[in-house]
Design goal:
The protein has 428 residues and is an alpha+beta fold. It is 53% helix and 7% strand. α9 (125-144) packs parallel to α21, α10 (151-168) packs across α15 (249-256) and α14 packs across α15. The longest helix has 31 residues, at 210-240. Mean pLDDT is 86; it is low at 239-245 and 258-270. GO terms for molecular function: heme binding; iron ion binding; monooxygenase activity; oxidoreductase activity, acting on paired donors, with incorporation or reduction of molecular oxygen. Its cofactor is heme. Belongs to the cytochrome P450 family.
Length: 428
């Protein structure tokens, strides 16, 4: 107790932050809540761009919200915190996301790169086109029968179908099966528990709790499905000889790599702004034919305002938090001393909404901010380190191009075809 009090007082002198709510759990009770994004933003503005919280008696997290520090730490590729990522290993193994060995990480990144080249990504269009027609059928059916649609779940199902085909060459039938989709049920068993294991790696290593045992069993099932899909893709390659025509991501992955996982992103759609919806509808009606159901890649490339909306959505309320880094030894950057053996959270929810970076309207959803120009007439760009919805630096998400293509096609299909409104009383 005396040692903790001594360390705590010393740490509070070094960095500000909210006082611990509980001796044993620190600030965990405050951060494991649904409104944690708002807390991060409030703490950032109250305590400054570098502040700290505690996950327990000796687990200190220093939040880095200064764009210059973020740029330097991410670009220098500081190590990820081994203990933190150990908790994610049951799902990700030694793949790119949790790879601690820098040389092996470089080798894996080089191996994955061909699968995510722009041309290869664009070659996935036929798969997404097919699933988008299923997506439209689902909403059309709901519209005819006057049923509510949970767009968040529907986008997840669409992404599962798309990733199943482009990454593993297999049909998951997620849109068709809805809540009965087995892989969706597996992820629901895995992800909430996995996040807790990320905070408490011992929880994964010693599965005392039933929820942890269920997670391990579900991951085993998921891995088995993935291995079967990869083997099928490899067998097909042997039979067909050299692949002809456009490359498919799963063919590159299945033949060049032992295994891999990555994620795609679905944005939250801010349809509470009728004037923004009107501008988007005007662009869609102008650029897309009246009989268009799913646009082509060439057509969506002309949808400049939709691109601004996606960019602003990822700033305003993006689905990704950022990344953890680790200081093996004390280091000083720009006069700020970062202590040894400390978790650094390069978190974007508060940086993306920092008035000091984005101006007084940082909490406004305003796509036009990305069109602003400097006094010399040049296009204004985000300050380096201030905008990183797909992480930052060498470990930036390789699936960004694929995610952007999916979002452009999905949202142009959605808003071209439908007028949307919230269920009465709905809150995000």
């Amino acid at each position: 107790v005396l040692f903790f009090v001594s360390e705590y007082v010393k740490a509070r002198r070094q960095f500000p932050g909210p006082p611990v709510a509980n001796f044993w759990t620190g600030n965990l009770t405050e951060t494991l809540t649904e409104d944690v994004h708002e807390k991060w933003r409030r703490w950032h503005r109250e305590f400054g761009p570098v502040y700290q919280t505690w996950n327990g008696m000796f687990s200190r997290v220093v939040y880095i919200g200064d764009p210059n520090l973020i740029k330097k730490i991410a670009n220098e590729n500081w190590p990820k915190f081994p203990a933190q990522y150990k908790g994610f290993k049951p799902l990700s193994g030694s793949a790119l996301f949790a790879q601690m060995d820098q040389e092996r990480w470089k080798m894996q990144r080089r191996g994955l790169a061909p699968a995510f080249q722009p041309r290869t990504v664009n070659d996935q269009y036929p798969a997404l086109n097919r699933y988008l027609h299923q997506f439209v059928d689902e909403i059309d059916t709901a519209a005819r029968t006057n049923k509510l649609v949970d767009l968040s779940s529907l986008h997840v199902l669409l992404t599962l179908d798309f990733i199943g085909e482009v990454a593993f060459g297999t049909e998951l039938h997620a849109l068709r099966d809805g809540d009965n989709c087995r892989i969706l049920q597996v992820f629901r068993d895995v992800l909430p528990e996995l996040m807790k294991c990320g905070l408490f790696p011992l929880r994964a290593a010693i599965p005392v709790l039933k929820s942890t045992r269920v997670m391990h069993a579900s991951i085993k099932e998921l891995r088995k499905m993935a291995y079967a899909a990869v083997e099928n893709a490899r067998s097909a390659g042997k039979d067909d000889g050299v692949y002809s025509g456009s490359k498919r991501i799963f063919e590159i992955l299945a033949h060049d790599l032992p295994r891999c996982w990555w994620r795609s992103h679905s944005p939250y759609n801010d349809i509470k702004n009728p004037e923004i919806c009107a501008k988007l509808r005007e662009e869609l009606d102008r650029e897309l034919p009246s009989n268009c159901v799913v646009p082509t890649i060439e057509q969506v490339s002309r949808l400049k305002y939709l691109q601004l909306i996606i960019k602003e959505t990822l700033r305003y309320n993006g689905p990704g938090f950022g990344t953890f880094r680790y200081t093996p030894k004390e280091v000083e950057i720009d006069g700020i001393k970062l202590p040894a053996n400390t978790t650094l959270a390069l978190w974007n929810p508060q940086v993306h909404r920092d008035p000091a970076v984005w101006g007084a309207d940082a909490d406004m959803f305003r796509p036009e901010r990305w069109l602003e120009r400097t006094e010399s007439g040049e296009e204004k760009k985000a300050t380096p380190g201030s905008y990183f919805p797909f992480s930052y630096g060498p470990r930036k998400c390789m699936g960004e191009g694929l995610a952007m293509l999916e979002m452009l096609l999905t949202l142009s299909t959605l808003f071209k075809r439908y007028d949307l409104s919230f269920q009465p009383g709905f809150e995000m």
